[in-house]
Specification:
This protein folds into two domains: 181 residues, Up-down Bundle (Growth Hormone, Chain: A); 224 residues, Growth Hormone, Chain: A (Up-down Bundle), CATH 1.20.1250. The protein is 77% helix and 0% strand. It has 18 helices and no strands. By secondary structure, it is mainly α.
């Protein structure tokens, strides 16, 4: 059922509720990626430098808990939102999320920080399905593609702007202000929810939680689907290193002076004596910026190519990007690795979603697509602890970061081999 006036087209075809949730998504994702762009550095830095002085293994345990929650909770949250209302769910999500960020800004002990970040993850997990659900309810076949395109654009715009502009400024005042920024960014959305957002029409038949659980069992019985998720999650073990081991490597090994000189020469055309410095938050900026700049181009190139082979090419590029980090510690080589990885990500992931639609039974496509993000649960659950353990072993103890990136590249190669075998022996009949 659509609320979109049939006579309108393009941007004018979207009602106010659509733009309301796009603003919510921008601020929520901006807050999240603003925090995630520096969290792993803040947690391990010594208190003298403004950090908390936790161990890398301890940070790995935190990341392997909170990130899987973000991917797992929407399964439950979507069913609850359908039953109790989207506005109520958003009220709870923003309150819990904002409280989690604020408590993190005040906490210094490992257990309190861990619990505060779990609160944040619970709020974010309940937020996710409400936004995509609202967009699905206020669009139709004529504007759904554009609507979800704007939705994904807003995610990357938030991930680009917040770490680029707000994080460096707030870091200069105090690292805890980054979490306060996120608390304000998400907490202020309560006002938008109260005074602007309108409850969309609920589905005639909402699913009871028992049916949601039955859906999980139904999907997990399909060995081909489960195997695809497990294989594909190997690539996401690599992706989640961008928020942990890559940041530690940048901070401890990289000299970004060549990049700084080039950027400051450019900035000097507009301002006097610029003093810009490449720092950890800019890893997230490069990833989001590359997607903003190139996603439409890449999508256009691969729009008619078969899903699984294109996924393999994308993962091969991501693996190459990770491998480039092993080649040299030269600043521009590091930047090149990040960009190549990002191109691989934007090539592989849309085709993964398309492929899940192919292998799903015709009457269960929505169900399968709903559970397809279990790749994130596995990838982040393994990636946080594995990355921290390998970093301590090969970088901190042995001083051989090249070996670390080689091992992660081999995980990428194993993922490619797994998909090739899947394509050879388990490819669905067309």
């Amino acid at each position: 059922m659509s609320n979109t006036p049939a006579q309108k087209s393009g941007f004018k075809s979207f009602p106010r509720n659509f733009w309301t949730v796009i603003v919510m998504e921008f601020f929520e994702r901006g807050s999240y990626y603003g925090v995630m762009s520096v969290l792993s550095i803040y947690l391990i830095m010594s208190p003298g430098e403004g950090g908390l002085g936790f161990s890398k293994e301890g940070v790995g345990a935190i990341k392997s808990t909170i990130t899987p929650l973000l991917y797992l909770l929407p399964i439950l949250a979507g069913a609850l939102a359908d039953r109790f209302g989207y506005r109520r769910t958003l009220m709870m999500a923003f309150t819990v999320m904002s409280t989690g960020y604020f408590l993190t800004s005040l906490s210094t002990s490992y257990s309190l920080v861990f619990m505060s970040l779990i609160l944040m993850a619970i709020g974010a997990g309940f937020f996710k399905p409400v936004i995509s659900g609202t967009i699905a309810r206020v669009t139709d076949e004529s504007n759904s593609t554009l609507g979800f395109g704007i939705f994904y654009w807003s995610i990357n715009l938030g991930a680009f702007i917040f770490p680029l502009i707000l994080v460096p400024y707030l870091k200069g005042i105090g690292w805890n202000y980054i979490f306060i920024m996120a608390a304000v960014g998400t907490g202020s959305m309560l006002l938008l929810n109260l005074f602007v957002y309108k409850e969309p029409p609920r589905p005639a038949n909402t699913k009871p939680l028992s049916e949601v659980l039955k859906g999980i069992l139904l999907v997990l019985k399909d060995y081909r689907f489960v195997l695809m998720i497990v294989i594909y999650s190997g690539f996401w073990i690599l992706y989640f290193q961008m928020f942990d081991t890559v940041l530690w490597y940048l901070k401890e090994y990289m000299d970004m002076t060549p990049v700084n000189i080039t950027v400051n020469r450019f900035l000097s055309l507009f301002v006097e004596n610029p003093d810009w410095k490449f720092d950890t938050e800019h890893v997230t900026v490069i990833n989001a910026g590359a997607i903003i700049a190139l996603q439409l181009v890449v999508s256009n190139i691969v729009k008619k190519t078969p899903a699984l082979p294109t996924m393999i090419v994308g993962i091969a590029m991501g693996t190459l990007g990770m491998g480039i980090l092993a080649i040299s510690t030269y600043a521009w080589v590091f930047i090149a690795g990040l960009i190549v990885f990002s191109i691989g990500e934007m090539t592989a992931h849309p085709k993964f979603i398309s492929y899940i639609g192919l292998i799903a039974p015709p009457d269960k496509k929505a169900l399968y697509l709903g559970y397809s993000f279990l790749y994130g649960v596995i990838g982040s659950g393994i990636g946080g602890i594995l990355g921290a353990t390998l970093y301590v072993k090969f970088v901190d103890e042995m001083g051989r970061p090249g070996l670390l990136w080689f091992i992660f590249s081999m995980i990428g190669v194993a993922t490619i081999v797994g998909l090739l075998l899947f394509n050879r022996y388990l490819k669905p009949k067309q």
